[in-house]
Structures are given as C-alpha cells and as structure tokens.
Design brief:
disordered N terminus; about 5% strand; Glutaredoxin; single chain; alpha/beta; 4 domains
C-alpha cells in the first residue's frame, strides 16, 4: 500500500489533510494560468485590483477568504489576481478595458471574455454573479444571442443591463441606439419599452432622450404622468446641479453655451417644477456673466421659499460666487442674505460650515 508523504506528515502532526478554505490564486503569470485552464478544462477567474483600492481589500478579506466561496471557485476556475498598476496589469487593462476597481473577469482558456463584474459586493452577491457569468445568462451568452439577431424587449432590457453593470458604457449606448432604431413610434413610447427608457436613456443629447422629451405626452398616456415626470426630474436635477456647481467652484470652465443648451432641454421637457431648474441655470448664468447683483436678487427672490435642502444648495453656490468674484459691497449684502437664510431655516451660525462661510465673507466685506 502506498502512503503519501503528506499523509504521513498529517498523522505525525495529529491532524488531517487541510482542505482549501479560501480562494486559491495562482502565483504564476497569466500565460501559465491559461495553460492550466486548458489542461484542467476550467474557466479562468481574474481579480483586477490595485494596492490603494478599498473595495478590493474588502473583497479579499471578506469574500475570497470564505470557505464556501473558496470551495466553489477552486473546483471550477483557475483563479488569478493582478495588480493593475504593475506591468502585466497594465497590459491586461489595455486588452480588456479595465477602468474601475475592482473588476472581475470570467474568461475561457483562450482568453475570451465570458463575463465581467465591477465593484465590491457581498459574498452572496459575488457567488450569484459568478454563477450567472459561467452559465447561460453570461455576458458572453447574451453577446452571442444579440449577434444572432435576438431582439425581444425583455432580452434587450437584460442585455443592456448586463453591459451597464459591467461599466461597458460605449457598448451599452451602441446596442441601445441600434435597438431603438428598430422600433416604431408606438413601440418607443409603449409600457413594454418604458423599463429600458427609464433605466438606460440618460444622455440628454441622445436621439432617445430627445424623443422622450418630444413625445412626453405619449409616454405619460402609456405609463403615467407621475412616473414620466419623476424620471425626467431625476435625470435633469443632478446633471444640471452638478454641472453648475462645477462651474462655480472652478472644477470646469465657465461655459454659457452649455447653460443655454440645458435651458433649451428643460423648456422642452415641460417637467414639473421646471421653473426651479431654470432658476438654477439662470443663477449660474448670472455668475458666468459676472452679474452678481442679479445673482443676489435671484437668491433673495427666487430661492427664499424653497425647502431647506434646496436653500442650502443655493447658499453654498452664492457663497462660492461671492468668494470668487464678489466686491466688498456684494459680499456684505450676501452675508446679510445668508444669515437670514440660516435663521429662517433653523440652522446655526455655530455650525463649522456656516462659521467658515461667514468668516470668509466678513473678511471680503
């Protein structure tokens, strides 16, 4: 009877042979990983990480260390992890289009992508994604079905969702546009197509979004006025608000042409509370035009009856405008207006943010 050396050692140590209780990552290069996958008839799993990525570290500590995850992955995959800031990592990033971390790939032994996952997740979510990605609902399988001509609405929603979840924005937009071109007007505004429009049509200048604005009443008839307005409002408010903030706080160039494009889109939308969006644009346009007198008037007149959260945003913007371009007299007027807002909203001047704001305006007054 043959007895392995490891068995003898285990007996001498009074224990049993250890079972791999975590995901085992190969220490060889990627070429050897693919070779092993071919020999063992397995898929390849790659963890694309960086040394500074918090979610990457969390995945390693809380997901890849688990026994159930290890048992599942080790029996089905040749596992490999790569620091994407190392030379081989840079090559992989270029080849597979890695832009965010962590990114996970399931590849076949020839290196073709079968599935792609992005971002940190729980062990349960990870296992669900891996199972999906190695079966009939993988990104690879959906790509194949799309190339074969499948276009039914439910399939398209799922396929575009997979592309979106994988951060494949260009591919997602391409597929969305190709599918949109196959639909007639009745289908585009139908309740069947609405889930796709609601989730994935977000580019303001895209043909799909312009169609939504132009045919808003048709969508409202088919899926409800409240539903359609909530979608458009949810798209426009953060887009316009963030862009205006970036102009005011110098994170992007002042751009009056873009503001006017936004104004046109909002006016076409007919969305509820359209006036508030137009005020945000007009407020920022006054700043871009160096007309802080107009901005101060708008702050006092247009924003004084808003809910506290909206008044807070306008207050931050006014402070940024005054610190950036305000004259001493304008800073004094702005300080008075901001103090009235703080009082009427029930805030405190002792709050560190407002304290800093007041001090800055006092120094400029």
């Amino acid at each position: 009877m043959k007895i392995s050396v490891l068995s003898v050692i285990a007996v001498l140590l009074g224990g049993t042979l250890p079972v791999q209780s975590q995901v085992v990552f190969e220490e060889t290069g990627i070429k050897a990983v693919f070779q092993k996958a071919r020999e063992e008839n397995k898929l390849v799993f790659i963890d694309c990480y960086t040394s500074w990525c918090g979610p990457c570290k969390k995945m390693l500590k809380e997901v890849f260390s688990r026994k159930d995850i290890g048992e599942y992955m080790n029996t089905r995959f040749v596992n490999y992890k790569q620091d994407m800031e190392q030379e081989e990592g840079k090559e992989l990033a270029g080849k597979y289009g890695v832009k965010v971390y962590p990114t996970f790939f399931i590849l076949d032994a020839a290196g073709e992508v079968r599935h792609k996952m992005v971002g940190g997740m729980t062990a349960e979510e990870f296992l669900k994604q891996v199972q999906l990605g190695s079966g009939e609902n993988s990104l690879y399988a959906f790509n194949h079905r799309y190339r074969q001509g499948e276009r039914n609405p439910q399939f398209m929603i799922e396929y575009i969702g997979l592309l979106s979840d994988a951060y494949m924005k260009d591919d997602m937009q391409k597929v969305l546009h190709e599918y949109w071109e196959t639909l007639d007007d009745r289908s585009k505004s139908s309740a069947t197509t609405w889930p796709l429009v609601k989730r994935f049509v977000r580019e303001m200048k895209s043909p799909e979004y312009l169609y939504l604005l132009k045919h808003k009443s048709d969508f409202e008839t088919n899926v409800g006025k409240e539903e359609v307005n909530a979608k458009i409002w949810g798209d426009l408010l953060p887009l316009i608000g963030n862009h205006c903030n970036d102009m005011i706080f110098k994170n992007r160039p002042e751009d009056p042409a873009t503001l006017e494009e936004y104004r046109s889109i909002v006016e076409k939308s007919g969305v509820e509370r359209m006036d508030y969006l137009l005020d945000i644009i007009g407020f920022t346009r006054a700043y871009v035009d160096n007309d802080l007198t107009k901005a101060l008037k708008m702050y006092r007149r247009n924003f004084s009856k808003l809910i506290p959260d909206e008044r807070f945003n306008a207050t931050l913007q006014l402070n940024g405008m005054l610190i950036g371009k305000g004259t001493p007299a304008q800073c004094k007027q702005g300080l008075q207006a901001i103090r009235r807002t703080i009082k009427s909203c029930g805030w405190s001047e002792e709050d560190p943010l407002f304290k800093t704001m007041i001090k800055g305006l006092e120094e400029k007054s």
